[in-house]
């Protein structure tokens, strides 16, 4: 329910406005309490000031095992809890190993306490030291290097390189979790956005693009997995076509990211539009490669067709990044 208040002047120069009593009661605000104000454009956000800056959460894991338990820990982390208490009547050794595995896969988490029925995990990173810009930049570098190395592994049938690409996907996933955690923090409190030095809309754009980069890394991993099942060298003309498709896809992703990071809205719009328009040409290029694959053995053609699809989809994700960059460059209502 929207409530309105009339601004008044006290002491001849101070503007005052009352706050709803129901909201004050629910949030522990009373006479003498301190509140914080955060200006954002033409809006002013008010929040109660608290001494305790770290949030704690408790999770019953008595019925959680394996990947379900891993996902539960990740969800608590992304949701923004600084201290995570995992409780059960008796925590099994398998659960302890799973919790350690989940902790190692997340940036900043460390197990602080372990007892028979309780495991306490704490985020040791200072949120003010985290940079969503740096995290997304790092994701860009890793995802695109994975895509290039995946095609190189296919070209040389280098199984060690293919395995390395698969392992690097964990690095991208860790960074994506960090970006998601930071973004959700900005949704909960304007203080988080102020510490980052970025508007919440920009944080949303970064989070959207991080999701696209995570998908590019997934497709690089998929290509690497397919390579592990290929025993005979790929025909040279097919390989050349795949390299060209890779270059096209990488160009779109790079252009989209350049437009996203650009402070010049005119330049960003031009670069992003060019990237989006080139996606259609890449789709046509992919179809010509599919025609080329029809000359091969059906099983081999199907496997290489999946690689063509992964490269084409990577270009689509670059187009999505370019679309986000266009929205970021557009005038603010």
From TrEMBL:
Taxonomy, superkingdom: Archaea
A Pfam entry, by short name: MazE_antitoxin
Residue runs in coiled coils: 275-302
Keyword terms of this UniProt record: Coiled coil, Kinase, Transferase
Example GO biological process: intracellular phosphate ion homeostasis
Domain SpoVT-AbrB: 9-54
Gene Ontology molecular function: DNA binding; kinase activity
PANTHER family, sorted: PHOSPHATE REGULATORY PROTEIN-LIKE PROTEIN, PHOSPHATE-SPECIFIC TRANSPORT SYSTEM ACCESSORY PROTEIN PHOU
Protein's UniProt name: Histidine kinase
Organism: Haloprofundus marisrubri
């Amino acid at each position: 329910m929207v409530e309105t208040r009339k601004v008044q002047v006290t002491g001849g120069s101070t503007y005052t406005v009352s706050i709803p009593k129901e909201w004050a009661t629910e949030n522990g605000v009373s006479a003498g309490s301190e509140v914080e104000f955060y200006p954002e454009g033409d809006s002013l956000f008010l929040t109660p000031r608290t001494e305790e800056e770290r949030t704690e959460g408790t999770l019953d894991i008595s019925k959680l095992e394996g990947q379900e338990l891993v996902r539960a820990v990740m969800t608590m982390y992304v949701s923004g809890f600084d201290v995570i208490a995992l409780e059960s009547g008796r925590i099994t050794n398998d659960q302890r190993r799973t919790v350690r595995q989940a902790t190692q896969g997340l940036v900043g988490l460390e197990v602080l306490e372990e007892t028979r029925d309780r495991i306490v995990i704490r985020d040791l990173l200072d949120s003010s030291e985290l940079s969503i810009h740096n995290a997304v930049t790092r994701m860009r570098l890793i995802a695109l290097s994975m895509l290039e190395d995946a095609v190189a592994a296919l070209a040389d049938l280098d199984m060690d390189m293919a395995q390395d690409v698969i392992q690097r996907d964990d690095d991208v996933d860790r960074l994506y979790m960090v970006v998601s955690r930071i973004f959700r923090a900005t949704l909960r409190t304007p203080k988080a956005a102020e510490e980052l030095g970025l508007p919440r809309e920009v944080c949303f754009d970064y989070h959207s693009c991080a999701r696209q980069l995570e998908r590019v890394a997934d497709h690089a991993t998929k290509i690497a997995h397919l390579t592990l099942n290929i025993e005979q060298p790929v025909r040279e003309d097919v390989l050349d076509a795949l390299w060209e498709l890779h270059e096209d896809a990488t160009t779109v992703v790079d252009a989209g990211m350049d437009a996203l990071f650009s402070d010049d809205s005119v330049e960003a719009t031009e670069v992003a539009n060019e990237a989006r328009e080139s996606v259609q040409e890449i789709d046509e290029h992919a179809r010509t490669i599919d025609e080329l694959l029809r000359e091969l053995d059906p099983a081999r053609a199907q496997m290489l067709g999946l690689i063509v699809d992964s490269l084409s989809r990577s270009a689509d994700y670059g187009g999505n990044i370019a679309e986000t960059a266009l929205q970021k460059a557009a005038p603010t209502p």
